[in-house]
Amino acid sequence: MKVKTLYIYPVKSLAGIDVSRFSLDDFGPQGDRRWMIVDGDNRFVTQRRLPQLANVTTDLQEGVVVIDVPGEGIFPLEVGSDAVEVTVWRDQVVATAGAGRAGEALSRYCGETLRLVYMPDSCFRRVDPDRVSAERRVGFADGFPLLVVNQSSLDELNSRLESPVDMRRFRPNIVVEGAGAWAEDTWRSVSVGESRLDLVKPCSRCVMTTVNPDTGEKDSATQPLKTLASYRKTRDGVIFGQNAVHQKPGEISVGDEVTVLNQEN
Q: Exposed/middle/buried for 44, CB within 10 Å: 0-12, 13-18, 19+?
């Protein structure tokens, strides 16, 4: 088994970036979901409610996150100075408000007041203590630093669909190839290159999987979620992929060998 593809998502719920390698810091993949969009109530906003956010692309230019808003232009994301308490799922964290014109451009594009916020190093949002006993942090990702998925599992799902879907619908960080379909259900820890990852929770999927990453439109038949729910529904939800926590800083590259260290029979 080896790493087929790697992705980072500089801004939660905007388009991700296909990269050849990334470094792991205390938060997870360096730069991954340190930015987030919030509404007028300072609550997080995602493609679940605004699917057109899929059309807003991201890039890294000399270490600066840049977003391209359709019809508005390209804007660097600037960290301001004002602290703001924001809500992401059940967590309230103190973030830093973004400066510059990016938030205004997003607001015009989406037709409502939005702004960007940044998670500084001083912020500590804890990973679910019911799943990870160590005091580990996470950025603005839904709950865990990493999402590991299996290419063969997508291939198996696509064999059941009239219109195959792209892996981007599932917003993974690490795509593994060379394993059997759904083999990842049994993995509990893996080595990826020189890094060790603990797989701590199956990833439950939502309506975001129905958003076409190329058009920003939801599938009228709620595919692939409808088909996935017909045979992948568990007590943890409709499952595709595994949430993971890394044991220490390191670097992961496309082509790295993946070895299962511990698994359930």
A: buried
pLDDT at 52: 98
The CA distance from 90 to 58, in Å, is 26
The conformational region for residue 161 under phi > 0 = left, psi -120 to 50 = alpha, else beta, is beta
pLDDT the model gives residue 200: 96
Q: Give Cα separations from 229 to 35, 187, 226, 239 (angstroms).
A: 31, 21, 5, 8
- Residue 210 structure tokens: 């129905």
Encoding tokens for residue 190? 């893996």
Q: If residue 157 lies in a helix (H) or strand (E), which one and from where to where?
A: helix 151-158
Give per-residue pLDDT as tens, 103-145: 999 999 999 999 999 999 999 999 988 899 888 999 999 999 9
pLDDT for 265: 74
Q: According to the model, what pLDDT value does residue 111 have?
A: 97
Cα-based torsion angle of the residue sequence 20, 184, 215, 253 in order, rounded to the nearest 10 degrees: 0
Tell me the torsion sign for CA atoms 181, 182, 188, 191. Answer: positive
Q: Which of 62, 58, 73 is nearest to 10 (CA)?
A: 58
For 215-227, b/e burial (b = at least 16 CB within 10 A) is ebebbeeebbbeb
The residue ranges of DSSP E strands in 70-114, in sequence order, are 73-76, 78-88, 91-99
Torsion angles phi and psi, residue 41, rounded to 5: -95, 10
